Amino acid sequence: MLGRLSWDAIPFNEPLPLLSGAVVGIVILAILVTVTVKGWWPYLWREWLTSVDHKRIGVMYIALGLVMLLRGFSDAIMMRTQQALAVGDAQGYLPPQHYDQVFSAHGTIMIFFVAMPLVIGLMNFAVPLQLGVRDVAFPTLNSVSLWLTATGALLVNMSLVIGVFSRASWWGYPPLSELAYSPDVGVDYYLWSLQISGIGTLLTGINFVTTILKLRAPGMTYFRMPVFCWTALAANLLIVAAFPVLTATFVMLLLDRYLGMHFFTNDLGGNQMMYANLFWAWGHPEVYILVLTAFGVFSEVAATFSGKGLFSYRSMVWATLGICILSFMVWLHHFFTMGAGADVNAFFGIMSSIIAVPTGVKVFNWLFTMFRGRIVFKTPALWLVGFMVTFVIGGLTGVLLAVPPVDFVLHNSAFLVAHFHNVIIGGVVFGALAGITYWFPKAFGFTLDERWGQASFWCWLIGFWLAFTPLYALGLMGMTRRLQHIADPSWQPLLLVAEAGAVVIFAGILCQIAQLYVSIRTRERRLDLTGDPWNGRTLEWSTSSPPPAYNFAVLPKVETIDAFWHMKRTGRAPVEPVYESIEMPRNSPAGFITAFFAVVMGFSLIWHIWWLAILGFLAAATVVLIAGWNIEREHEISAAEVAQMERAR
């Protein structure tokens, strides 16, 4: 009746998972009680949970990413503490099997449920506004994408207290992830959570490629689009091309585990190396899905806070498209040591070095944008400067690892861990935090507190270098990745420095929480009444903060790059436009309800509760079909209502 699910799935003999689960449960219960007591459910259901407004969906994506950042960072600090303590005769506090789950969950959460929701959230919020349109191409599909991503995040967190999570790391290499070596449900949690969230991400990619190619303001040709829209287009083209590869790979691994097939085993003609090829054929474009979006954010920040147009706009566009293409030609550098041969290694080593060229073009363009500009060092500009220093060093270590003989020495070492975090934290996380600070007043109508924001930046920057510089040295000294116990006591001082760095980063996270609290408390004196708090250049700053549901009462006419800056410079007379009625999409519960049944289906598949999995799938499919066939998808805002709202603003 309940498949493999029994009371044995609850880890009663392991206090840490139970304590973690209890803390999470108490927080969720407190939130539910507060919402119920305050009577907020109708508002939340009407304005947020069922919303198809791209701006609110973007905010919810970012909220999901920030919540999961806390979960993923808790795993990180647990690992750093274990390695700092478990030296020589000391065994630390995490047993090996629990430690394996922690580092697997950390990588999975940070890539799929922190970095991806943050960059997709920023794209959701800003791209339609920058394009001068009213919403994305498929608003209801956008809601479904969000809630499928949230489904995957929920399934990962359920593994805290019901069963276990994967111990095969975040890439799940066979044979470790095959049934013979991982007979429990950990790998199943990993596979089904990523399959479901991956479908949501693929739908997002289709949605945004369509939006950018088909929905733009009158006069906005491709080479008048903001650079952030270009990087969003490139990132979503990569999603559309790469995520089906990951989905197919996981399907084959699931068939191995559930039906005894042999795609990735040595038995009956299987090939473990095929998994590595397929996974990284998705995995390296995934790095650029994340980083390209951050590049777009920094391009907007550099131009705005330098008070001048982005240097060599067209070279930035071509560099973006070059990275988009080259990202599919470097995947094998992830396994130079696995016997592909000297010629193959040489080709991929050369391609891995070449892809640094368009990235270098971007860095020089940001520097030249700032050169002789009137730079205003607000918090987003600080993130830009910190990013350039950190990311360039991380990129240089990447070029070093692209040399196969060097990689043979450093592969699977702590040096590689430092390089990867150098790029992802220095690029993606810094970019996401810059974007959140930059567009926050547009989303909520008031700016964030500068003092707490700058304190957070310095904690993140200093903490990062304290945490990961020692890992470069330890990698050169021979320390490999994923060690639960450190046999060489001479490594402990550097591990303690890395632990201190993690603590400083945690202080940065606390500063961000304090920044949000203080900003909300003092929002009355930091209101953005102009809609343009940074003296911006692109169209999102031409509307009010926060924008109305329809974004623009009259779609703007674009005549050049930096359309809003051009409008301000030419001093157009404020003539009241002729308002027309606007059709806007209706709110839809389809995404939320689909996600509910997707959770039921995913959990049932993990635990082999076949009857419930079938019911969950049929219910989710029914909701999608009903939403798809619904003809009452839009409601009309009359011209009089539009005029009234615009005059009130």
What does this structure look like?
By secondary structure, the chain is mainly alpha-helical. Helices cover 67% and strands 1% of the residues. The chain has 20 helices and 2 strands. The chain has a two-stranded antiparallel sheet. Helix 5 (139-158) runs parallel beside helix 18, helix 6 runs antiparallel to helix 18 and helix 7 runs antiparallel to helix 8 (272-306). The longest helix is centred in the first third of the chain and has 36 residues, at 96-131. It is globular, with a radius of gyration of 25 Å. The protein starts with 14 loop residues before the first helix and ends with a helix. The model has no long low-confidence stretch (mean pLDDT 93).
What is the secondary structure topology, with strand pairs?
Blueprint: H1 15-38, H2 41-49, H3 54-85, H4 96-131, H5 139-158, H6 186-214, H7 227-259, H8 272-306, H9 313-326, H10 342-354, H11 356-370, H12 379-401, H13 404-410, H14 414-444, H15 450-476, H16 492-521, H17 563-570, E1 582-585, H18 590-606, H19 610-629, E2 634-637, H20 639-648
Antiparallel strand pairs: 1-2
Helix pairs in contact: 3-4, 3-5, 3-16, 4-5, 4-6, 4-8, 4-14, 5-6, 5-18, 6-7, 6-18, 7-8, 7-9, 8-11, 8-14, 9-11, 12-14, 12-15, 14-15, 15-16, 18-19
